[in-house]
Amino acid sequence: MQRTVLEGVGSYLPKRIVTNDELATRIDTSDAWIRERTGIGQRHIAAAHETATFMGAEAARRALAAAGASADSVDAVIVATSTPDQGFPATAVSIQAAIGMTRGFAFDLSAACSGFVYGVSVADAMIRAGQCRSALVIGTEVYSRILNWEDRGTCVLFGDGAGAVLLRAGTGEDDRGVISTHIHSDGRYGDILFIDGATGQDDRPQHLVMNGREVFRHAVSKLAGAVDEALAANDLTQADIDWLVPHQANRRIIDAMGKRLGLAPEQVVVTVDRHANTSAASIPLALDEAVRDGRIRRGHLVLIEALGGGLTWGSALIRF
Ligand code: UT7
After folding, report:
1. Of 286, 281, 311, which is closest to residue 296 (Cα–Cα)?
2. Which of 160-198 are b and which e, b meaning 16 or more Cβ less than 10 Å from the residue's Cβ?
3. Which of 28, 37, 254 to mutate to test the pocket of ligand 1 (most atoms within 8 A of CB)?
4. How far is CA 119 from the centre of its chain?
5. Is 154 in the pocket of ligand 1 (CB under 6 A)?
6. What pLDDT sits at residue 300?
7. What span, in angstroms and rounded, lies between the C-alpha atoms of 176 and 1?
């Protein structure tokens, strides 16, 4: 079967690290509360020059280097972000220019924390339809710019960063590649996680607003459905999965999904402790870490899943 093969992965994290203790000097919170409720210990926060384009381009260059590919060989750039540099041109187009790509096409995709899973799904469909032969799928986020730093219920949860993968039409000679993707949304829940003031129709600053308890409740049930769907669609069982690389929002949600799949804790890739929630960047950042340190190797079956504002959610099964 001809599949879309994942050829390389790369990521970028801002230099500056902000610990829970540092946040506790500014707002009414504590390292103990943040760790216990979320598993987060620190997050990276972007400097002025570390924009969505800057970080996404760096992650893309590293994914290309890991694949031994040049920017000329790429047909498409798909960027998942909720924090673009500007309304338009799309961040994807800015990244296209930044990495020296002068042909093909580039566009942004808005699916909040599920953006990377959506991006893989769209790229895989376009590659299999023959519309392009290769695509960079990039998640790049600067949530520090849309957080209300006085709201302790949200500002402790997020961080900045970017991750990228290079996908290419496979030769069909082996079973590597994207096996399936499943994406969903339900706009009835748009009011439990959103960016306030995003229409620009009044003077309100753009801030992320979240009803954490409600999002948590939906995450546990909808993600369970998305992973079951991925296995059932491919006649696979939990035992076939080598690695779960979940969206990194909350350690409790991550552990619940690992348990549900009957995986050993060591089979679940966790970065939320060091990166916090980097939205669309969290899965490719986690993939990059686990590929670089040798955990995820060629032939391994990896399940990714995410839920985010929209609500949007989904899963993908990829054989490395
Ligand atoms: O990536 C997109 C998807 N997002 C998610 O999946 C996030 C899902 N939700 C969550 O991860 C959790 O709901 C949170 C981590 C956001 C919150 O955890 P929780 O266990 O649901 O806590 P809570 O919101 O019910 O708050 C419990 C208490 C409250 O105090 P009272 O009302 O019980 O007195 C909060 O005011 O904790 C208080 N609290 C804090 N205390 C110290 C809230 N934020 C903080 C804080 N430090 N930063």
Report:
1. 286
2. bbbbbbbbbbbeeeeebbbbbbbbbbeeebeebbbbeee
3. 37
4. 9
5. no
6. 98
7. 9
Q: Name the E strands within 65-171.
A: 76-80, 105-109, 134-142, 160-169
Give me the pLDDT at residue 225, please.
95
What tokens were used for 304? 């990714």
Give the per-residue pLDDT at 205: 79
Are the CB atoms for 96 and 158 separated by under 8 Å? no
CB 246 near ligand 1, within 6 Å: no
Coil, helix or strand for 302? Answer: strand
What is the average pLDDT value for the chain, to the nearest integer?
96
The low-confidence residues of the chain, meaning pLDDT below 50, are none
Q: Which amino acid is at 143?
A: Y
Beta carbons of 213 and 154 less than 8 angstroms apart: no
Question: Between β-strands 134-142 and 76-80, what pairing exists: parallel, antiparallel or unpaired?
Answer: parallel
Distance CA 179, CA 215 (A): 28
- Nearest 5°: phi and psi at 37? -85, -25
- For residue 131, the CA-to-ligand 1 centroid distance in Å is 44
Distance CA 252, CA 46 (A): 26
pLDDT value at position 200?
A: 66
124: phi then psi, degrees, rounded to nearest 5: -60, -45
Query: What is the Cα–Cα distance from 124 to 137, expressed in whole angstroms?
Result: 10
| Size (the chain), residues | 320
Q: pTM, whole model, 2 decimals? A: 0.97
The answer to whether residues 310 and 112 touch, using CB atoms and an 8 Å cutoff, is yes
CA–CA distance, 135 with 73 (Å, rounded to integer)? 9
Cβ neighbours of 12 (radius 10 Å): 24
Q: What is the pLDDT of residue 112?
A: 98
What's the rounded Cα separation, in Å, for the pair 258 and 268? 6
